[in-house]
RNA sequence: CGGGGCGUAGCGCAGACUGGUAGCGCGUUUGGUUCGGGACCAAAAGGUCAAGGGUUCAAAUCCCUUCGCCCCGACCA
């Protein structure tokens, strides 16, 4: 491709709308342009890179035995009512009516559609297992679109769904996708960390996320320094510290703490450490108040609470409920004397005495012994894990990191197959419900994650596997006829070997071409100039290295092929 | 949805406090000189100053409302 014939609008300045490197570079290198918040046009260079990622995804899905289909992006409302997810996802779905005044939505995901399809088309155990996938645009009315393609209202996703006759089969289907994902991200040149994950709105029994480690990542995770354990913070467990054995606490004692409400205020006022305090949170579980206790220096993890309460709906209590339940204004709740269920973080067993709210205005209690002075319904791991916590598997210290979620695999179970009656007849002629798994890759997000993980001061550094072109061919002086001829010949010779190049034939000064070549970051740069041609040579350089090599023109094609193989 | 920041030429920004002819750099067009790391000279085009309303003799500038974009948060009493 000739630069002058395509559309690669590079930018010298950083657009003020972009915050993180990958977003800045996608705009500066002319890969994408914004239409409005969370909506982007792919320009030729960005589209080519996207297609290469898609191709890797497709090849690996096919290799894993998955079947490609293409489902509609526009869905009638009824199918979402059928699964009961219309209400769950209504705020995230773009909703509209057709001319018959029929309610429609743009699909944020496709469990409903694919399960309906399979329910009608597959009837026998002989047809199972099946994994069906598509690469398609998804629509989500995100609360806050962010960072260019990272979180957009419209994005390309590879979504796959497996249907199995039994749980052993699901295990195999899941593992096949897991392995395919590992290969996909490896081929994309990404270093990913696989973490245990929360299943969230999707439901199901277990799941793993594929995370690209990056400071700009939206997800927090911990990884063990001693073993392979790693988990999303929404999920991450921790081993409680050893119990403190000695000392019976003095009797419970109420002290005045006028206007001190927060942990920090009370701790400073009473000269105790925050971890000696108990943070008491009032929640509504199925609209009934419950108390949740975590150490004063800890954050409650609502995902963990929800799991501990077996998925019953929870939400934080409003001020009125808190006052009614505790008999005190906000900031003075404590476990002693509460007559509602009390769920406590396991770490609170560590200390024999604590400081907590007294359920009375402007007062806290000291020498609180949970076993003696309160009735705890149950202990769970409820606090959010963090740097330095002990690994739940091996007890070693854990590190906290941030990551970009590029892939997610779930074992779904029968949640959807039951609703849509996705059933088959087994060998004995009995009707059985299929067991499902679902597997997603954010293709557009993966593309940006590649740039986030592979760039330098000068611009993008494309891994050869996803680079939009194999090489930049710079004709330094387009007035020099021989340069142009040699460059054209090289371009077609390389093209004949399946290596597409970008020939910079613009009437620009060499500096501009060098800068732009670094910015768009193709793996190789081939410079054709009057100077090197005097020796019948061209200069070849890898993007990520400084070293340049002069190669005779006649050997250039072989040399490039070797460098890229 | 709450908080904060920002909207002035294609991009990056100044001008606003203290109201009075809308500017700078890059880019674009034309001509010339240049040609291995974002050249130089000359000329030119390009703006409803986000939108609407108000104050004023006069508004990019002061006031009000709305919209858009970006960031943080949306749970910790």
Task: Describe the model.
- The model has no long low-confidence stretch (mean pLDDT 91).
- Strand 27, helix 13 and strand 28 form a beta-alpha-beta unit.
- Strands 3, 7, 8, 9, 10, 11, 12, 21 and 24 form a nine-stranded mixed sheet that branches.
- The protein folds into three domains: 272 residues, Bira Bifunctional Protein, Domain 2 (BirA Bifunctional Protein, domain 2), CATH 3.30.930; 128 residues, YbaK/aminoacyl-tRNA synthetase-associated domain (YbaK protein, Alpha-Beta Complex), CATH 3.90.960; 96 residues, 3-Layer(aba) Sandwich (Rossmann fold), CATH 3.40.50.800.
- It contains 16 helices and 31 strands.
- With 565 residues, the protein is an alpha+beta fold.
- Helix 2 runs antiparallel to helix 6 and helix 2 packs across helix 12.
- The protein binds one RNA strand of 77 nucleotides through strand 14, helix 14 and helix 15.
């Amino acid at each position: 491709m000739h630069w002058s014939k395509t559309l690669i609008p590079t930018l010298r300045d950083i657009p003020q709308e972009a915050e993180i490197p990958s977003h800045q570079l996608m705009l500066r290198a002319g890969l994408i342009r914004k239409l409005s918040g969370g909506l982007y046009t792919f320009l030729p260079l960005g589209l080519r890179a996207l297609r290469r990622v898609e191709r890797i995804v497709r090849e690996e899905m096919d290799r894993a035995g998955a079947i490609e289909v293409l489902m509609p992006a526009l869905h009638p409302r009824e199918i979402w009512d059928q699964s009961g997810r219309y209400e769950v996802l209504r705020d995230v779905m773009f909703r509209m009516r057709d001319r018959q005044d029929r309610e429609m939505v743009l699909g944020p995901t496709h469990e409903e559609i694919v399960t309906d399809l399979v329910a009608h088309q597959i009837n026998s155990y002989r047809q199972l297992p099946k994994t069906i996938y598509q690469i398609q645009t998804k629509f989500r009315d995100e609360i806050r679109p962010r960072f260019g393609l990272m979180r957009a209202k419209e994005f390309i996703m590879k979504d796959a769904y497996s249907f199995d006759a039994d749980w052993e089969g699901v295990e195999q289907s899941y593992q096949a996708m897991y392995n395919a994902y590992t290969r996909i991200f490896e081929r994309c040149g990404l270093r990913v960390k696989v973490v245990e994950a929360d299943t969230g709105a999707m439901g199901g029994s277990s799941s793993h996320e594929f995370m690209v480690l990056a400071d700009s990542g939206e997800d927090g995770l911990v990884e063990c320094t001693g073993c392979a354990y790693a988990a999303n913070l929404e999920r991450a467990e921790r081993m409680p510290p050893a119990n403190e054995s000695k000392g019976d606490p003095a009797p419970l004692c109420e002290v005045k703490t006028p206007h001190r409400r927060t942990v920090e205020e009370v701790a400073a006022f009473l000269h105790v450490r925050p971890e000696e305090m108990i943070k008491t949170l009032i929640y509504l579980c199925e609209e009934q108040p419950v108390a949740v206790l975590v150490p004063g220096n800890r954050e409650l993890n609502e995902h963990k609470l929800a799991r501990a309460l077996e998925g019953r709906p929870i939400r934080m209590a409003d001020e009125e409920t808190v006052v009614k339940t505790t008999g005190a204004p906000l900031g003075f709740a404590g476990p002693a004397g509460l007559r509602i269920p009390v769920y406590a973080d396991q770490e609170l067993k560590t200390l024999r005495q604590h400081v907590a709210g007294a359920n009375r205005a402007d007062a806290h209690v000291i020498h609180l012994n949970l076993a003696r002075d309160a009735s705890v319904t149950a202990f769970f791991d409820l606090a959010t894990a963090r740097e330095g916590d002990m690994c739940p598997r091996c007890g070693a210290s854990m590190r906290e990191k941030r990551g970009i979620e590029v892939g997610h695999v779930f074992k779904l179970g029968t949640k959807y197959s039951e609703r849509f009656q996705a059933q088959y007849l087994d060998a004995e002629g009995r009707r059985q419900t299929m067991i499902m798994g679902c597997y997603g890759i954010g293709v557009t997000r993966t593309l940006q994650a590649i740039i986030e993980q592979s760039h330098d001061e000068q611009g993008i550094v494309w891994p050869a596997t996803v680079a939009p072109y194999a090489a930049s061919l710079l004709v330094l002086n387009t007035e020099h006829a021989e340069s142009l001829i040699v460059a054209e010949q090289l371009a077609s010779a390389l093209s004949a070997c399946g290596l597409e190049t970008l020939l910079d034939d613009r009437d620009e000064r060499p500096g501009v071409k060098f800068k732009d070549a670094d910015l768009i970051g193709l793996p190789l740069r081939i410079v054709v100039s009057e100077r090197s041609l005097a020796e019948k040579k061209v200069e070849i350089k890898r993007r990520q290295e400084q070293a340049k090599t002069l190669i005779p023109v006649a050997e250039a094609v072989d040399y490039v092929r070797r460098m890229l193989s």
